[in-house]
Amino acid sequence: MIFFEEDDVRPNEPSPRRGWRYVATNGTVFAVMVALTAAGLLILATLMAYSRVIVGWALALVYL
After folding, report:
1. Which of 3, 4, 14, 40 is the most exposed place for a label (fewest CB within 10 A)?
2. Alpha carbons 6 and 14: distance in angstroms, whole number
3. pLDDT digits (tens, 9 = 90+) for 15-37
């Protein structure tokens, strides 16, 4: 992890501990974001692959 000195921050700039700059410098936060993105894409791909099956089940439940 990279630590920033308070003197490095100019008054008109946002703190480096906030926003994307913090995410890019903090390895744990970055790893969690990458893992969540990968999980979301996997879920989306699964839903797309099984969408016909899911719709079929939903229609079967509606018309039973």
Report:
1. 3
2. 12
3. 655 666 666 667 787 888 899 99
Over 12-58, what HEC string results?
CCCCCCCHHHHHHHCHHHHHHHHHHHHHHHHHHHHHHHCHHHHHHHH
Encode burial over 6-34: b for 16+ CB neighbours within 10 A, e otherwise.
eeeeeeeeeebeeeeebeeeeeeeeeeee
Report field, pTM of the whole predicted structure over 0.90: no
Distance CA 9, CA 19 (A): 14
